[in-house]
What does this fold into?
Amino acid sequence: MERFLQGVADFSAWLWGIPLITLLLLSGLYMTFKLGFFQFRYFGYIVGQTFGSVFKKPKGEGTVTPFQALTSALSSTIGAANIVGVPAAIMFGGPGAVFWMWVIALIGMALKFAESVLAVEYREKNALGEFVGGPMYYMTKGLNMKWLGVWFSFALMIELIPSIMVQGNSIGRTVETTFNIPSLWTGIATAALISIVVFGGIKRIGKVTEIFVPFMALFYVGGAVVILLMNVSAVPEFFMLVFSNAFSPAPVMGGFAGAAIVEVIRWGFARGLYSNEAGLGTAPIAHAAAMTDHPVRQGFWAVVGVVVDTLIVCTATAFVILSSGVWTNDGAMENSSALTSLAFESYFGEFGAILVTIALIFFVLSTILVVIFYGAKQAEFLFGIKASYGMQVVYILAVVLGAVGAAEVIWGFLDIMLAAILIPNVIAILLLSNKVKALTTEFFTSDQYYKKDRKEKKRKKAAAREGYES
It folds into this structure.
């Protein structure tokens, strides 16, 4: 049995190495070229249409606001990967891995945009009057391949059981280590809290995440910003370290054993993709419920989701680790998962370790909350509304079982099951790339959307100028 599990782990490591990284990189580049590098050309406009419109009344119809859809999607992506994954990339790939994390984020924006645009385009209303969508719907309606939609939906629904167990185990262990509370009690308390929210549907989830996500992100990133202000002189050194090691092997330093350039790129890409989930097909399930007048407008929210998750939160973690120097300590390689906590502790003392622990608990809680919703939507697609409630009960029980360590035997299968979701989704995006291109062209050339927004902005500027001159 032990040999079999090791074989599974080895195959999983190979699969999530060159094969899947190449698939995602080439797919992201293809969509970036096909869409005319829109994420760079219109970046200012995208930010204005998203963060710049948070307090404005949403355009079009939907179940939740665009901001609530974004925070729901971010609840899944901002998690342990931001706190534990980044130091792993640095320890196994060197500081240069951070640069490649940024590169894959910029390319991955096109994939995340495409899947979210398709989710809105092919969404429908369920029996409760809520908008539902995602890869299973655009595979069925856009490609006329219901079998592929069923494959994706079933694979995701099953994969989330051990995934939730792992999250439950993470929160159970963290609380037990820091506060000495038994994992079982943590699991039961977590399950009870999650139940109150998830059984309220996407509207209640959206209301919780629009408060929860900004708070937890600001709490964690705020700590990193304080460190940056305490240590402004380290900023040029941070960027020099990242850029100089991105294209050349990083030297041996203390606990770091050095890494070849291929490993630098691989670890940067892998951790970046794990963090922002571009191409995985999960975030579109949240974005499909958003109020919007055009699929492309909601796609912009998916783009800024990558900005927040990878370019802001992951970079904050990287800066704290590299500026503190903990990555060069002896034994750092063997204890990479604790580096973020040690780095914050080196600046803030014991409070720093508690800050990271609380942030991790919040991140994991929000991840569980939203992935249960994702799983319930798969059960609804496959078997109907009633089945979705039954699946939510299964997931909530999985939280408790995971907290007491019941998932450890199947952890090795998680990455293989994720690949069974990712591969069909990327294939569907590529097959429907002409549709994404047509919708994007329509948005930027029609007088109803982009041109109208630009005219409105010019009109407001002119009115403001006249008011100032008078």
Remarks:
- The CA atoms of residues 10 and 412 lie 9 Å apart.
